[in-house]
Amino acid sequence: MNMTADAPLLAADGVPLAVKLKRAERRKKLRAALLVAPLAVFLLATFILPIALLLYRSVENPEVPAMLPKTVSALAGWQGQGLPDEAALGVFVQELTAAKDNKAMVGNAAKRLNMEISGYRSLLTKTVRAMPLDPAAGPLREQFVNIDERWAEADYWRVLRHQDSRYTGFYLQSSLDIKRGADDSLHMAGDDEAIYLKIFGRTLWMSAVVTLFCFLLGYPLAYWLVNLPTRKSNLLMIVVLLPFWTSVLVRVAAWIVLLQNEGLINGALMAMGFVDSPVQLAFNRIGVYIAMVHILLPFMILPVFSVMKAIPPTYMRAAVSLGSHPIPAFWKVYFPQTVAGVGAGALLVFIMSIGYYITPALLGGPDDQMVSYYVAFFTNNTVNWGMAAALGSLLLIATMALYTLYARIVGANRLSLG
């Protein structure tokens, strides 16, 4: 068959070859997508969706708008001075009366308002029990004040006015010790009220100290393992991995036994004459550091070891043979090649440290608790999902920021080495 120069190439069945190639490429991509689909669904259900719900819970504010939608709308025109007008109070009375029999709704709204001003729970429930009010009995303002004198204070009405949306920044603001003033302006809480920034600072500081000690202990150990004969190195690597096969709770309990005043370490120190009385090693910051470094040390050793294993030993020998002292040769030739492993190990240890809960809770004192302790407290004790989600969201943001910083640093180092 004669073919012109512009005629398309045909397959045996007469279909243009380019069309068949496109079809084959589409089938290949479809098969790949079907193979990846189970993993994508798993990640969506166990990772992405929980994070999305966490972020949503940190700004969700359904309690008061669900109970008093018309009231918060009526208060929108109130200037925040004195008391609301009779029309707004009438709407408030109607909605309180309608919600009187719905104890769950009233309880949720009272709990939410109590987060803004302590005592609001008792005020709202007391007022609901007094419903309905009779407008013929006198001005509603006086009747509310007769129920409880706190209704004469504008602060309680201002808090109610702020609940005009199903979304709020209250939880995130509180997690950063930001308060709302009487004029609706935002300002930092005073030293006697600010607690969460101190907790975040403590968490970051303790995590940095743990990461530093893991590096100081893990880097030389990884270097030693790399330079040992393969048989001995593999045997000692099993020892390094042993903590992975033991529960964290069991390891913390073992450290409590070792570090307590009557424990083995204090007994050995007194028996050898180093101390005359037991040293406080447990239930304080020292015990937390010791246990966390012990638990997280393998996460520093393994990334550093894997990077060191790929570095040819001839580099160091070449540097020394060219006249360099071993120590400068190590820092100028060997260490820069291990920065990626050190960064990965440090990032892994630090991220795991800022989320630690069991070890500080069991081995630390009140001033040694980290953010995760308060996330668990708000989740289990006070059932304040908003604050728990806000604190967790800030931890997530910090983790993502650290990972982004690490990626940029490692990428810059790779470019400079290249």
TrEMBL record:
Keyword Transmembrane: yes
Stretches that traverse the bilayer: 32-56, 204-226, 235-258, 286-307, 339-363, 383-406
Keywords, alphabetical: Cell membrane, Membrane, Transmembrane, Transmembrane helix, Transport
Single biological process term from Gene Ontology: transmembrane transport
Chief subcellular location: membrane
Superkingdom of the source species: Bacteria
InterPro entries for this protein: MetI-like, MetI-like_sf
Signal sequence, renumbered to the chain: none
GO CC, one annotated term: plasma membrane
UniProt entry tagged with the keyword Cell membrane: yes
Localization terms from the record: Cell membrane
Positions of the ABC transmembrane type-1 domain: 200-406
Topological relation to the membrane, as annotated: Multi-pass membrane protein
Family to which this protein belongs: Belongs to the binding-protein-dependent transport system permease family. CysTW subfamily.
Protein name, as recorded: Putative spermidine/putrescine transport system permease protein
Species: Rivihabitans pingtungensis
